[in-house]
C-alpha cells in the first residue's frame, strides 16, 4: 500500500491578482520501502508539495492520503497528532531546539510521544551510523552545520515514523557524509520499511533513490 | 516544565538577569509600601494599641486632642467604665541636659486605667509617681537610658524615664506616659479642668454642652496631616504597583514572543500546542516565584537592618497583594502569546 498518495493536488497562494499557483494538479505516490527524490529548480513548488504531504498545510484542492487516511479535511490538532506519530521531518532551518543538548532533543520526543520511539540501543546504533555518538552532550550552537544536519536526521528517525520527509537534508554535508546519509536512508527504507521522500538539488543522492520526480513550474514528472 | 527548565539551565545569565530584574521590582514595591505603611502607622499605632473605638473631646477642639479640654462637670455627665481612659495630652519638647530636644506627646493617664495597665513595657517599669514617665522606645534608640532626667517644655521639675514602651506613637511622635496631675501642671490649666479627652474601647455616643463623641475613623482622619499623607501614599503606591506590574507582564510577553520561531519547528514536528503553552506559562511562574522568594528574603533582611528611626511595617495584605499581583502578571505575560502559539504556522519551519 502507498504510504503517501496524492491525486490532482492544486495549491494557490494568495488571492486575486496576488495569487500564485504553486501546484497545478500534481499526482504523486510513495510506497513504504522506497526512497523518493523530488528535484527541480528554485520556486518550482517542491517545498509546497512536501509541506502538503507532511500535513503542515492543506491543498487548495485535490486528495491527499497518508497511510490510507484522507487528511484534506483534518483539523490542525489532528494533523499535529498525525505529524507526531507518523511523520518525521528533517527541515532546512531551525531544526533543533537551541537550548537542549543532543541527548535532550531525544528526551523531548519521549515527553511528547510516549510510545513507539526507538529503544536505547537502536538509538545508539543510529547515532553511530551517523557518526554523532560523541556529540550527545553538546548544544546545537556548538555543532557544525553538518553535525546539526545529522542530529536532525537522528531526531526525526528517533520517533520511528512511517514516513520521513526531508528538505535538502544534505545541504551542508561533505561528499563522504552525503554518501553515508544516502546509504542510511536506503537502509532505513529497506530494513525498517519506511517511505522516505527527499527534496534535494543534490545529484549525489540519485543513486540511492528508487524513484526520482522532477518538479517544474508546479508540475511533476517522473524520471525514474 | 521540561522545556522551561532546560531553557533556564542553558541560558543562566539571561534568566538570571530576568529574575534579578523582577526581584528588583518586587523589592521596590515591598520596600516602598513597607516604608509608607510604617510611617502612616506611626500616626495611629498607639490608638490601635489601645483598641480605641471612640474618643470624647471638647466640641470646639476640631477633633484635635491637644487643644481639647474636659471639665470636672463634663466628666460627671459621662458614665465611665473600665473601657474608658481619661487622658490629658500635651505636645512637649523633652530635653536632657547636653542633648537636643525631642518632640513628644505627653500623655497623662490614671493608674487604674487600661492605657496605664496595657503599656507594652520592653525595659524598666511603669511610672509610679507624679514625676516619673515611660517613654516610647524611639527615645531609647536615640540614646536615652533608664533613669535619665528630662525637662518637659523647660519645666522646673525634672521627669525621670523609668521605662521604655513599644509602639507608643501618635501622629508620628513618640508618647511619654505620665499622670494627669503632672499634665495639669505642665499645661498649667485653670481650676476645674480635668483632662483632654476620653479614649474608649466601646462605641460611645455621649454628648454634652461642651463635648462630643467621635468615632475612631473620624478621629484619625483628622489627625494633623494624616489623611493627606495617606492619600499621597496610596496614590504613589497604586501608580508604582500598576506600572511595575505592567512592566513585568510586558517583559514576560517579550520573552515568550522570542521563542516563537523555535516553537514553529516544534509544532511542525507535532509537539502539541498544549506542551508549548505550559512551557511558557510554567517558565513565567517559575521566574516570578524565584524573584518573589528573593524579594521576601531581602525585605526581611532590610527590615531587620534598617535603623529603628525609619519605620518599616507590613500587613499581610501588602504581601498578599504583591505576591498575588506578581503571579497574575506572570500568568498574563505567559498566557498572552497563547493565541499566537496556537496560530503558529508550522509551515514557517520549513524555511524555503
Ligand atoms: N507562503 C507563500 N505565500 C505565497 N507564495 C508562496 C508561499 N510559499 C511559496 N510560495 C510561492 O510558491 C512557489 C513555490 O514555492 P516553493 O517554496 O514550493 O518552491 P521550492 O521548489 O521549494 O523552491 P526552493 O528550491 O527555492 O526551495 C514560488 O513561486 C513561491 O514564491
Ligand atoms: Mg524549498
TrEMBL record, chain A:
<keyword id="KW-0472">Membrane</keyword>
<dbReference type="InterPro" id="IPR017911">
    <property type="entry name" value="MacB-like_ATP-bd"/>
</dbReference>
<dbReference type="InterPro" id="IPR003439">
    <property type="entry name" value="ABC_transporter-like_ATP-bd"/>
</dbReference>
<dbReference type="GO" id="GO:0005886">
    <property type="term" value="C:plasma membrane"/>
</dbReference>
<protein>
    <recommendedName>
        <fullName>Putative hemin import ATP-binding protein HrtA</fullName>
    </recommendedName>
</protein>
<dbReference type="GO" id="GO:0016887">
    <property type="term" value="F:ATP hydrolysis activity"/>
</dbReference>
<dbReference type="GO" id="GO:0005524">
    <property type="term" value="F:ATP binding"/>
</dbReference>
<dbReference type="GO" id="GO:0022857">
    <property type="term" value="F:transmembrane transporter activity"/>
</dbReference>
<dbReference type="InterPro" id="IPR027417">
    <property type="entry name" value="P-loop_NTPase"/>
</dbReference>
<comment type="subunit">
    <text>The complex is composed of two ATP-binding proteins (HrtA), two transmembrane proteins (HrtB) and a solute-binding protein.</text>
</comment>
<dbReference type="InterPro" id="IPR015854">
    <property type="entry name" value="ABC_transpr_LolD-like"/>
</dbReference>
<dbReference type="GO" id="GO:0098796">
    <property type="term" value="C:membrane protein complex"/>
</dbReference>
<keyword id="KW-0813">Transport</keyword>
<keyword id="KW-0029">Amino-acid transport</keyword>
<comment type="similarity">
    <text>Belongs to the ABC transporter superfamily. HrtA family.</text>
</comment>
<comment type="function">
    <text>Part of the ABC transporter complex hrt involved in hemin import. Responsible for energy coupling to the transport system.</text>
</comment>
<dbReference type="Pfam" id="PF00005">
    <property type="entry name" value="ABC_tran"/>
</dbReference>
<keyword id="KW-0067">ATP-binding</keyword>
<dbReference type="GO" id="GO:0006865">
    <property type="term" value="P:amino acid transport"/>
</dbReference>
<keyword id="KW-0547">Nucleotide-binding</keyword>
<dbReference type="InterPro" id="IPR003593">
    <property type="entry name" value="AAA+_ATPase"/>
</dbReference>
<dbReference type="InterPro" id="IPR017871">
    <property type="entry name" value="ABC_transporter-like_CS"/>
</dbReference>
<keyword id="KW-1003">Cell membrane</keyword>
<feature type="domain" description="ABC transporter">
    <location>
        <begin position="4"/>
        <end position="224"/>
    </location>
</feature>
